[in-house]
Structures are given as C-alpha cells and as structure tokens.
Prior knowledge:
Number of helices: 21
Family: Belongs to the heat shock protein 90 family.
Radius of gyration: 36 Å
Low-confidence stretches: 95-103, 105-119, 555-564
Number of strands: 22
Pfam families: HATPase_c_3, HSP90
GO molecular function: ATP binding; ATP hydrolysis activity; ATP-dependent protein folding chaperone; unfolded protein binding
Distance between the termini: 114 Å
Oligomer: single chain
Shape: elongated
Keywords: ATP-binding, Chaperone, Cytoplasm, Nucleotide-binding, Stress response
Protein name: Chaperone protein HtpG
Amino acid sequence: MAAKGSISVNTENIFPIIKKFLYSDHDIFLRELVANAVDATQKLQKLASMGEYDQEMSDVTIQVDVDKDNKTISITDRGIGMTEEEVEKYINQVAFSGATEFVEKFKDIDTSTIIGKFGLGFYSAFMVADNVEVITKSYKDAPAVKWTCDGSTEYEISESDKAERGTTIVLHVNEDSEEFVDEFRLRQILNRYSKYMPIPIQVGEDKRTEKEGEGDDAKDVEIVEPHIINKSEPIWAKDPKSLTDEDYLNFYKELYPMSEEPMFWIHLNVDFPFELTGILYFPKVKEDVTPHKDKIQLYSRQVFITDNVEEIMPEFLRLMHGVIDSPDIPLNVSRSYLQSDANVKKISSYVTRKVADKLNSLYKNDRENFEKKWESIGLFVKYGMMTDEKFYDKAKKFCLLESLDGKLYNFEEYKEHVKALQVDKNNKSVFLYASDQGTQDSYIQAAQKKGYDVLKMDTLIDSHFISNTEHKFEDITMKRIDSDTVNNLIETDEKNESVLTEEESNKLVDIFKRALGNDKLEPKVEAMTADELPVLITKPEFMRRMEEMAAMQGGMGAMFGGMGGGDTITINGNSEFVSRILKEEKEEEQDKLVKHAYDLAKLTQGNLKGADLTSFINRSLELI
Length: 624
C-alpha cells in the first residue's frame, strides 16, 4: 500500500540551498551516491565478518548504468539495504529549523553511523535530477520498498518487487544536466573521484575483438568485459613493510606520468589522535618554489575530495607530491571549515613533523646521500625554515651551507670552520657569500687571498633566507662578498697602513670627482693591499638586500632601482695605478686614468656595456 508524506524540514527551499551552497561542482552527485553505495556494501561485509550475516555475499560490484533514451542514471549496490523504517529515518527526517541552520549544521554532522550514509549526501542527486527513485531491500527479512520524490518536500513510499538485497537509485536527469547522461562522462567523473575506492565499480562494458582458431579457420570473436573503474588497491592503504621501492615508484608514475622520479618518500600512517594515511614524495625541486595546487591529492576513505590543499598543508609542504587520506575530513568542506577545524590543524602539524623527522633521519643515517641530493632538498628546507616555525626548530640541525669549494656544513660546523679568521670585533661569526661567482670573481679571489671562506648562495630564495638566518641566529652576520672592500668585510680593530698623506687623499678625491663629472659621487680613499684593484665599487649590504627583496616583490624594485644611489666608490690608496694618477700633471691624462680605473671596477661587476665598454677597450690599447 502506497503512503505519502512530507520530508521533515521547515523550509520549502531545501533543494535550492543544496544546489547553491552544499556542492560547488555538479558532478559531485556521482561521487556522493557511489560513496554511499560503497559504505552500504562495507557495512554488510563487516556484519558478515562478525557472524551477523551468514548468507552468500556473491558479487558486490556497484553498477552505474545510463539510459540515454529515458534520460536516467542508475546506481545499484548489493549492500546492506534499508527497511521502510530506515528509509523514513535516514531519508525523510532531515529536520532542521531553517535554510541557514541547515547549511551550518551539515559541516559538523557525523554521517558515518548512517546506513550507507543516506542523508545529505544522498540529496546531492537533486542537483541533476527532477525526480529521484530509491528502490531498496534490507539484508534483514523485510519487504522491499520504493521511495520517490520530485525535488519538493513531498515524497511517496510504496512496496517494491525488488528481490535482491541492496539499493538502486534512479535519477531522472533534468534538461540542464543532460551532459551526465553519457557513459564516457560518468567514467571521467568516477576516474577522478572513485578510482581508489575499495568496492569494484562498473560503468558499462568494454568490447574488443580477438582471433579464435588457427589458419584459415581463424575467426574474429567479440570479447565483452565489464568496465571496472577501480582495479587496484591504493598502496597508501597497505602495510609499508609489504611494499618495495618499485611499488612506490610505480604509484608515483601513475599519479604523475610526466614527472622525473622522486628523490624519496614518506609513508604516513597514524590512528590517534586522528586517522591519517598517505604517501608524500619529495620531487626534484630546482628553481621553482611555487606551491602547486594540484600535486597533493586529498582523500576521505579513498574517496577523492580535492587537489587544492591550501588550507590543510603548510605552504612549503605544498612543494611535495602525493596523497593524504583522512576520514576525519568530511567529503564536503568549506575553506572556513578547514581553517577552523582542530583535526585539520593536527594533521598539518603531524605532517610537518614527519617530514622533518624523515629529513633528519636521512641526514643522520646517510649524510653522503643527503649531501648529493642537497641541491633539491636545500630549496625545500630553506623555504620551510622561512615559513614554518615548527619546521625551523628541527631543520636548523640539518640545513646545510655550501662553500665555493663544494664542501657542505651545518651551521655549527661552519661556525667552527671559519672561527679562526671570520669573527668580528663584536664576536659574531661572519659568513661571506657569493650570489654570482662569474661577476664577483675578483672580490672572491681577494677574500680567498686573505684566507676567508666564501659560501655559494645563488638560489631564488637565498636573499630571503639570508635575512631570516641573521634574524634567527644572533651570533651570525652574513655579508655578500662585494658589499665592501675585503678589509672591511670583517670588522676588526686592525687597519692597513696607507702610503698617502691626508692631503694626498683629499686631492685624490677631488681628481676623481672632476674626472667622473659627478659631484654627487662621494669617493673615499682606503688603505688596501697593493695587489688589489685601484678602484672598487660596492653597495652596502642593507641597501642591496632592500633592492633585491623589493625586486622579488615587484613594484618596489623599480623605485629602488630608479634611485641610482647606494654605490660606494673606494679608491685603493696603496695601488701603484692610483699613485700614477696622483703623479700625472696633465688633467687630460689624469682624467683618462681615472675613467679607466673606474671602468675597470664596473667591468669586474659585469656593468660595463655598449659604448662604455668600447671606450674602455680603445683606452686600454692606448695605455699599453
């Protein structure tokens, strides 16, 4: 006997609310309904394993069928099914006080105890259907029932002649959603969301032709096989002890077919205080430190949720690739939910810790291999240290600095390495570094002649990392090799003796100002070694850092670049070439020598180009 009733909601607008707020993508309906079918099947398998269901399970494949003529989509499972009472409980009694409360309450509702998760996920069917039928028969000894609803709050429930255990949901697809009445389209959706689900999902059949028999008697035979979406169990759900390196690499190729092999990986597995499994891979990071939104896939019980993990993973971890699966994250979540959820924050902290522990373990147990991979690991570690305090606390022990001779040191090792010559009068270790060995070679050689060690710091993020390092390590200061004359890079109380008198030094400054034709320049004379360049152009460390960081951020860089100031011109008072300038009596010849010394300084920085370079070459020929 058929019965009619009203779904227990206090608003006529429940379905528009579902369509507008609950789901951002309409193809989610298929994920939800298939997930319900999988849960219903697993529930029955659990009862069977407990001895509470002793009948034949037979084939539990979930079938997704399309009828183009009638514009219907059917999802059929052989799971636990529902009685009429359970249909009333889990489908009809969506009892919320109003539209706003409905949307708000959904994000916190625990649907894991609902048979087959019928409820709000089920109502996603009305995103694409004008009319929905549910034909279900419980595993219990109860009559089958049919529930129908046209998208209003009115429904009808009646007896059904369904003989097999399980549930079939029939969607009568509306005109706006006819794109989904297509088998290939449904396969696409399920390949995205459901290819790792634990119960087989069939969408149609695959046909192929094979030869049967031999020679002239051979005939073409058509082979028809079910098209199963999910053919393999995801390796993140397996025991790591049962997996080989080849298993992990094959899975990586499956996820990212066009990528280079990863350097190494972490298999995540935790069941308290939250559940989490997954595999995170360390790709070969070069100059690109832009987090990719589609490289880490988030699942909930093997159901794909999103590949945008911005609210779950710290920024630097989004450089990694892989999969995270946690049932503690609902299938349908908003950004605000992720930002405020306690479990999400715990997951983020846990993953950060596991990544740091993995790197620390590699560093301690196989430092040689760790150093070989440092070019890629280094960008990742430095980025993490700058952006995540918890990671910084662990990473400072295994973060490495590379000397120009190729040797690698951690911070404490490097302080010990340079303590003999590179500690200033304030008792700070001075780490000298080069950002461009080609253009800074003369400065590097001058430093190395004094016995100084120079670090290689030429990656995209090193300018930020250097400032971050000084902020964190109060006993370290870092200076670029061309930020001052070699004698002033490390401030001490020792000074070189000058061969010039004060009067000669002042005269020299006036000669340079006149010869260079720029009254705004403020050359200074300094006592350096005789074999150093006659003139050096340097930029104070603080000014250069401001320019570099502003340039990376865009607009401000142009402003700093346009100021044209900041360069320091230092005249080597002990240079024989400078003595020659002083001794020259003809202004014209003096000017020529000054310009030559100045152009030589510009040349060492790679800043002498065009007509200025041509003049320098012609002048060199005259002076030879």
